[in-house]
Design brief:
6-stranded mixed sheet; single chain; two-stranded antiparallel sheet; alpha/beta; Rossmann fold
């Protein structure tokens, strides 16, 4: 059956026509509203789901940041997370259960990281050499550096996550930490030592 408004209009009076059009508009509006609500609910549910690895990375990074002190910082530190990270969503999204001990900022390149005046940087796929190049541009500022793609942890970041399947641990580059200008609670360093050997 083909809907033809001109043919229908000739056989229906003006008042009935207005009622019919209004009812069709309401039905269309309710359908659209229902579809939008469904998308919003599915989107919210998908946004709130973290894998166990996501939760572990978020927990370790939050712990490191919360046990770090900057010499001249009042308030929450700003953690710049490189968009190349596999855990950008976990490190920057609110999960509704726990507050982040930092203000997250997603950066795509070194220029964005420099202009964001980060207090801490979380590197994704950036190489240790690239990390060291960025650090040299931040000279004179206290800066906490964490990476997920630096398993040797010899140059670059002070803290290096080691992600093996669903198991997440970290190691510490004491030389980089000493030069970073931040102070970290010794318990975190002991935890890293225990996790390296355990």
């Amino acid at each position: 059956m083909v809907f033809c408004p001109q043919l229908l209009r000739t056989s229906i009076s003006g008042a009935k026509w207005r009622i019919l059009v209004r009812n069709l508009s309401l039905i269309s509006f309710f359908r659209l509203t229902l579809v939008l609500m469904l998308f919003l609910m599915v989107g919210a549910a998908a946004a709130g789901t973290f894998t166990e690895t996501d939760k572990s990375v978020r927990s370790i990074v939050s712990g490191i940041v919360s046990y770090t002190r900057w010499p001249s910082l009042s308030g929450q530190p700003k953690l710049c997370v490189y968009a190349s990270s596999h855990y950008t969503h976990a490190l920057t999204s609110k999960d509704g259960q726990s507050e982040l001990p930092y203000t997250p900022v997603i950066v795509r390149n070194d220029q964005e990281a420099l202009s964001a005046t980060c207090d801490a940087i979380y590197f994704g796929a950036e190489s240790p050499v690239k990390q060291r190049e960025l650090i040299s541009q931040y000279q004179g500022r206290a800066l906490l550096l964490i990476s997920e793609q630096n398993p040797e942890c010899i140059i670059g970041s002070a803290f290096c996550l080691i992600i093996d399947r669903n198991h997440v641990r970290f190691s510490v580059n004491l030389d980089a930490l000493t030069r970073s200008g931040v102070r970290v609670n010794p318990d975190v360093l002991m935890l890293a030592r225990n996790k390296q050997h355990g």
